[in-house]
Amino acid sequence: MKVRTDAKRDEIVEIARKTFLELGYERASMAEISARLGGSKATLYGYFPSKEALFLAIVSKLAEQYVSPAVERLEQSVDEDVREALQRFGEQFLAFTSDPEAVASYRVVVSEAAHSDIGESFYETGPKRTIAAIGRYLAGAMDRKQLRRADPEVAAQHLTALLAHGEPWHQYFLRKAPSPTRAQIKRIVERALDVFIGGYKV
What we know:
The chain is mostly helical. Helix content is 77%, strand content 0%.
């Protein structure tokens, strides 16, 4: 019986990530990925039962690398000015969601959601957890009277919508536009927070 290792799993995820980016979700078969891995399909399926599961592992790894640290730092920012904390988080969050690889992954999720469980799985492992964590931070800010009392999870949804689906949405998701610069991201987040803070100010 072969022993599964984290190193091998990470290797599979990285090779699959490059394959999906190069060929797209439809053309990137498990057979192609196993060929590039240099092993058998049995080895690949031993780690991931389906192409969908492998794709979701890639998306989860991206979120762990970029979104999770930003969310954790936000939750630890209880002694900071709420706008400063949200500005820092917003810049990190938007830098990730407008990254070409993240955009490509999200397009795959949307295209596959109508005829598979990939959308539900993506939501449960990604956006749902992020919204809940942001909501916890906002609930604390409401308790500290930095923001007006409201449903913190709804407020978190409003915030992420302004950040990811406001100004940059059509430009970076529907068009082949270059990713925004750090300066552009900063200004986008500032304008989003003008609206968010304006709506939730005490």
